[in-house]
Amino acid sequence: FLMSHDSDEFNRWQSAQDYAMRILIGAVRALRKGQRPARPDGFLGALAAMLNETGLEPAYVAQVLAVPSESDVARVMARDVDPALIHRARRWLRKTMATQLGTHLIEIYESGSGSRRFSPDAKSAGARALRIAALSLLAARGQPADVERAARHFRNASNATDEIGALAILSTLNGPERSDALDRFYARWKDDHLVLNSWFAFQAAAPLAATLRTVKHLTTHPQFSMRNPNNVYSLIGAFAGSNPLQFNRPDGKGYDFVA
């Protein structure tokens, strides 16, 4: 699909992830110069064509919609890495994709909202993954309706994939929906130490200004112990390894905390 819509550009890139990586690196360079990134019309057109196509495996579509992580972008750039600019570039691309493809994404999400019973087979897992991918991109627009959609998905979840997928989305946002979801998840799973590690990890990985303060506070939580390797990995490990924006704070407090 990418080749058919933007072949001159795509002939140098071997996958949608490669193409998205090029866009992200270009966006970082533009932001560094104080410029607005150029809208990737070819990429957006290719994605729209893919979403219009019937018969594709949902798991495949979900993978194509995935945007490279901030850590992946930093690894490819290799030098002059600015975590804050990379975060802004990735947030810009996801918001641009969601804005331009919103109608398609809503259709994908709503088409999978039937009351079918949970099944662990590959086809059903792929459908759930695609629905969560659409939900995540829509939330990147930041509109109240998009946030409420994610909150509703969390409240109505009937399986772990949907519950944790929605919590992962909400945990990155500021607002009462985030607090409500975290409180509900804790109340439900507080007696399951393995599941509760996800609760620690999502809060530690949130790219929010208050995250370091939250992580420090969670080290005193009754369910957290420095003698429990899984606790340490889920909270401190997630902060250091999955939150490049807040771990690499310019004031050095992220490094100081982990040290």
List how many beta strands DSSP finds.
Answer: 0
Instruction: Please state roughly what percent of the residues sit in beta strands, choosing from under 5%, 5-15%, 15-25%, 25-35%, 35-45% or over 45%.
Output: under 5%
Low-confidence stretches: 8-13
What is the average of the pLDDT values? 92
Radius of gyration: 19 Å
Helix content: over 70%
- Morphology call: globular
Helical segment tally? Answer: 16
State the major sheet. Answer: none
What gap, in angstroms, lies between the N and C termini? 47 Å
How would the blueprint of this fold be written?
Elements lengths: L1 H9 L5 H17 L8 H12 L5 H8 L4 H8 L5 H18 L1 H10 L10 H18 L4 H13 L3 H11 L5 H14 L3 H13 L5 H8 L10 H14 L1 H4 L5 H6 L1
Helix pairs in contact: 1-3, 2-6, 4-8, 6-8, 7-8, 8-9, 8-10, 9-10, 11-12, 12-13, 12-14
Description:
- This protein has 259 residues and is an all-alpha fold.
- 71% of the residues lie in helices and 0% in strands.
- The protein has helices at 2-10, 16-32, 41-52, 58-65, 70-77, 83-100, 102-111, 122-139, 144-156, 160-170, 176-189, 193-205, 211-218, 229-242, 244-247, 253-258.
- It is globular.
- The N and C termini lie far apart (47 Å).
- Residues 8-13 have low confidence and may be disordered.
Summarize the structure.
The protein has 16 helices and no strands.
